[in-house]
Design goal:
The structure holds 2 protein chains of 2 kinds.
Chain A lengths: L16 H7 L7 H4 L5 E4 L6 H8 L1 H11 L7 E7 L15 H24 L11 H12 L9 H20 L18 H8 L9 E7 L6 H12 L6 E7 L22 E4 L10 H16 L6 H4 L4 H21 L5 H19 L12 H7 L4 H21 L12 H26 L5 H24 L9 E4 L6 H13 L3 E7 L6 E7 L18 E4 H10 L21
Parallel strand pairs in A: 1-4, 1-5, 2-3, 3-4, 6-9
Antiparallel strand pairs in A: 7-8
Helix pairs in contact in A: 1-4, 5-7, 6-8, 12-13, 15-16, 16-17, 17-19
Chain B lengths: L4 E5 L4 H14 L3 E7 L7 H13 L3 E3 L2 E2 L4 H14 L7 E4 L5 H11 L6 E6 L3 E2 L5 E4 L3 E2 L13 E6 L4 H11 L3 E7 L6 H9 L8 E6 L8 H8 L7 E6 L5 H11 L4 E4 L2 E4 L4 E2 L4 E5 L1
Parallel strand pairs in B: 1-2, 1-5, 2-3, 2-4, 5-6, 10-11, 10-13, 11-12, 13-14
Antiparallel strand pairs in B: 6-17, 7-16, 8-15, 9-14
The chains are: A alpha/beta, B alpha/beta.
Chain lengths: 577, 291
């Protein structure tokens, strides 16, 4: 059975240039940052679109774009994609050396990788060296880099070949079965990348170019390489080049430079958080999600809106409507002389909660469906958005196949298929929490896996209680942590870091309403909630939970206290924003 | 077959000391190098004492250097230094890989290569494994020192994983190296509940993009070498190939030989921080081979 699933969510690096151009949404772009002369850090966990943003802007993709759009190639900003998750980066022989030698070898590998990426990228520019005297530029390069290039190939290919040979020789040297196997001819950034770029700027087409060196998955670099990179970032003359660094949030590399200083956000670089809180369809991520799905449908000749392709269960829609009407009526009775806005706010807060409250305890889980629900379930992460869509589409095609239908044309995903897939994915996530954490997540012990399982169970219980009983913010499914002086806070932080690595938990920072201080907001992956009958459509609010309660939930499986204003229990526990 | 040196790693499993006793009695080794992991010092104390007493009684020279799961640099240095002290004459060596982590097997073989004329390996199967779990608390996968091959620039990463009972570790390796293609070697046969615990569990990868399943038999004469080579031979020139074994211990021998045949390939170890104190019980068939 061969078919094209429009919601493919493969890692961006595996997509070809055309698919990147087809799938990338320019509205959601960090292009203005990436295509700037500033140093940029893009941070976020897997699947939030870092690599896609870098690859879209990379020169080879931009060349393809210019071809497709039949427009001249703009070489003002030349973006070079430099993957760091490579076997070369994972080599660890430097650990057998003293600090100085380790640093030299580590820098060498990184510098050669960058130089190779630069020449490999530039070699894709059509006619780059046309009308220039190649021997002159070759001579300059050989002189400045103190190297001897092979003569029989074009200059950029010769350079690529040279770097390939160089990296091989260095590896052979450090693979020697000796305690202190070292490579003597190591190259530094200042002796390698800088003269290379300076020399390449002499090519007429690159005379006005700025080089954006985009290091992807920089968290995979070793500590010596991170220090080197930070030192280069601290080099504040960004006329010739700048760095765009994509890295995970949890294992984000430290800011130290090789000379012991530190790079500072604002001064040395701008930080972009790629994980965005998703609140509603009009928020940035809401618009992005819609554009992504719309584009995917269009590219597969499916002439439906995302809402039309993923219809809501009509009974659910009717039930929600009834609840809205009832709550609207309640608002007019409860509030004295309410304004229209007050009524809208009241309905926003309580109508969906009313739906969940009125469901019989014996009823099946709610019929989760509809495009907006799917977007909420993504928790603001693109891969989380595409993944259930992919499996829904796959299920429909499989059903067609098993019925012997010849065509695999899918014009909508029936709401029953959506519900089944959402519940399957939700169950799978809980199974992962219960069974897979310590086997999959680096640094997660069995004890921590059990603690995390308890913590998420207790968060689910708390959110369920709130959904059914809380008087003012029943659908809050985001939390902040208070009482950070708690003695085991660091252990709790360690636990939450593992949850973030496992993409069970996302974070974003925002200013607290009352204090105005920047605060970390924790958002559990919303795909967890369907299996617990919770509403994945949250609301603009959060639950402030004391660190000691979260720790007790994790360590001793204690319920997180639920404060009810009507009986003044645990008063002050929740500060709903 | 006579063996001058017998190299092993201490374990609490029955097959460690049962195998040791039987093998030393048969081979008449005059020197024993018994590494032990400090993290499991207490758990292996009894079986190590058994070896100490046995060697004393039979006048066998015993060295017992420490290794460290959490400090691979120190472990490598410990192996390097102890092996460097061996007299590089034409003494024969028997390597008992039964309870030896794959990283240690590869490191020892790599460092011995060229020094020794003859290396014999033995592996004692257990009677059975614990049914609940064997290892957990996964640590970051790592490329083995000096065995990372020659990584090329600008080419895709391809991963070879020989699977075992732990499906999650396969996911971990794929996620960690973000391979373009993954060749999953599934051990064939019904031994030790392999059908349910390995073959059946890995079938789900059939539908994953970029994953290719193939059969491999580490208990065959070539330990699966030909089956693995068939998968990688066409890719070695234009890819970076990383290989790891989560399956039968004997498959580590096949991967070692592949690495030697294709020196650009890398060997990766997927460590666990916790092993089941009831990992296996009893001792079963013994498999012997020459490198």
């Amino acid at each position: 059975m061969d078919y094209n699933n429009p919601f493919e969510y493969e890692a961006a690096i595996k997509l070809g240039y055309d698919k990147i151009l087809d799938f990338y949404i320019q509205d959601f772009n960090y292009s203005r940052f990436i295509r700037s002369r500033r140093n940029i850090f893009l941070v976020g966990e897997r699947g939030c679109g870092k690599t896609m943003a870098l690859l879209y802007n990379s020169l080879p993709v931009q060349i393809r774009k210019a071809e497709r759009d039949n427009i001249p190639l703009n070489l003002d900003i030349v973006c070079v994609h430099i993957p760091c998750n490579t076997p070369l980066t994972h080599k660890k022989e430097y650990q057998l050396l003293d600090d100085f030698q380790a640093s030299v070898v580590s820098e060498h590998f990184l510098v050669i990788s960058i130089m190779f990426a630069i020449v490999d990228t530039l070699s894709k520019i059509p006619n780059l060296t046309i009308n220039i005297k190649e021997p002159d530029i070759r001579e300059d390069l050989e002189f400045l880099l103190s190297i001897k290039l092979p003569q029989e190939k074009p200059v950029l290919n010769s350079l690529a070949l040279y770097f390939q040979k160089e990296v091989g020789e260095a590896q052979r040297a450090i693979n020697a079965k000796k305690l202190d196997a070292f490579y003597e001819n190591a190259m530094s950034f200042s002796a390698g990348v800088l003269p290379l770029l300076t020399c390449l700027k002499k090519l007429p087409k690159l005379a006005n170019s700025h080089f954006a060196l985009m290091l992807d998955d920089a968290h995979d670099l070793n500590t010596h390489q991170i220090k080197c990179l930070n030192s280069w970032i601290a080099y504040r003359d960004n006329s010739l080049f700048s760095f765009k660094i994509a890295t995970a949030k949890v294992d984000r590399p430290p800011s130290l430079t090789a000379s012991g200083g530190a790079i500072l956000e604002g001064h040395d670089y701008t930080l972009i958080d790629m994980e965005q809180p998703y609140q509603n369809r009009l928020s940035d991520f809401g618009k992005l999600a819609r554009d992504i799905i719309k584009r995917r449908l269009e590219k597969n000749a499916i002439m439906k809106t995302p809402e039309g392709f993923f219809p809501v269960n009509p009974q659910f829609e009717t039930d929600i409507k009834e609840c809205e009407d009832r709550i609207r009526e309640e608002a007019t009775q409860k509030l004295s002389k309410p304004t229209q806005k007050q009524i809208i706010d009241y309905v926003y807060k309580y109508a969906r909660a009313e739906y969940f409250r009125r469901r019989s305890r014996k009823a099946n889980l709610p019929p989760y469906s509809g495009f907006e629900t799917i977007v909420h379930l993504s928790t603001g992460v693109i891969r989380n958005l595409l993944e259930p869509c992919y499996w829904m589409y796959d299920k429909v095609v499989s059903e067609k196949h098993s019925k012997g239908e010849g065509d695999f044309i899918v014009n909508e995903i029936p709401y029953s298929v959506q519900t089944d897939t959402i519940l399957e994915r939700s169950k799978k996530k809980w199974d992962f929490i219960r069974n897979g954490l310590d086997n999959t997540i680096t640094g997660c012990s069995r004890e921590q896996a059990i603690q995390l399982s308890r913590l998420f169970e207790n968060l689910a219980i708390l959110f369920k209680k709130r959904l059914l009983r809380h008087k003012s913010e029943p659908r809050a499914i985001t939390f902040t942590i208070s009482d950070k002086e708690f003695e085991h806070y660091s252990k709790l932080e360690g636990l939450l870091a593992i949850a973030r690595k496992a993409q069970l938990l996302y974070t974003y920072t925002s200013s607290g309403k009352e204090s105005g201080k920047r605060e970390i907001y924790y958002v559990p992956n919303r795909i967890l909630w369907p299996e617990r009958g919770l509403d994945p459509v949250g609301q603009y609010s959060h639950v402030s939970i004391k660190a000691r309660y979260l720790w007790a939930a994790a360590k001793d499986n204690r319920k997180i206290p639920f404060g009810r204003s009507e009986d003044n229990q645990e008063q002050g526990l929740f500060h709903n924003g | 077959m006579d063996s001058d040196f017998f190299i092993t790693v201490a374990s609490w499993e029955d097959r460690f000391w049962l195998g040791f006793e039987s093998e030393i009695t048969k081979s008449g080794a005059t020197n024993v190098l018994m590494y032990y992991y400090t993290e499991y010092e207490e758990l292996t104390a009894k079986s190590r004492q058994f070896v100490v007493d046995f060697c004393k009684e039979h006048k066998i020279n015993l060295q017992s250097p420490p290794l460290f799961f959490t400090r691979p640099v120190e472990s490598w240095k410990s192996v390097y230094e102890t092996l460097a002290k061996l007299n590089p004459s034409d003494k024969s060596i028997t390597l008992d890989i039964t309870t030896m982590p794959r990283e240690t097997i590869w490191t020892i073989l790599n460092l011995l290569e060229g020094q020794r004329k003859r290396i014999r390996y033995i592996y004692h199967k257990p009677e059975g494994y614990d049914e609940e779990w064997l290892s957990r608390n996964a640590d970051k996968p790592r490329i083995v020192y000096k065995m990372g091959g020659i990584a090329k620039l600008g080419v895709p990463t391809k991963l070879v994983i020989l699977t075992g009972y732990d499906v999650d570790r396969v996911h971990q390796l794929i996620d960690f190296f973000e391979s373009e293609t993954t060749f999953l070697g599934i051990q064939t046969g019904n031994q030790l509940d392999n059908q349910n615990r390995n073959i059946a569990r890995h079938q789900k990868f059939k539908n994953e993009i970029g994953v290719i399943l193939f059969d491999v038999d580490a208990y065959s004469d070539d330990r699966g070498f030909a089956a693995i080579e068939q998968q990688i031979s066409g890719h070695a020139k234009h890819s970076n190939i990383i290989m790891s074994s989560l399956g039968p211990k004997l498959s580590a021998i096949a991967l070692y030989k592949i690495h030697k045949q294709y020196p650009d390939t890398a060997l990766a170890y997927a460590p666990s921080k916790e092993f089941n104190p009831k990992y296996s019980h009893g001792i079963g068939e013994t498999v012997v081979g020459l490198l």
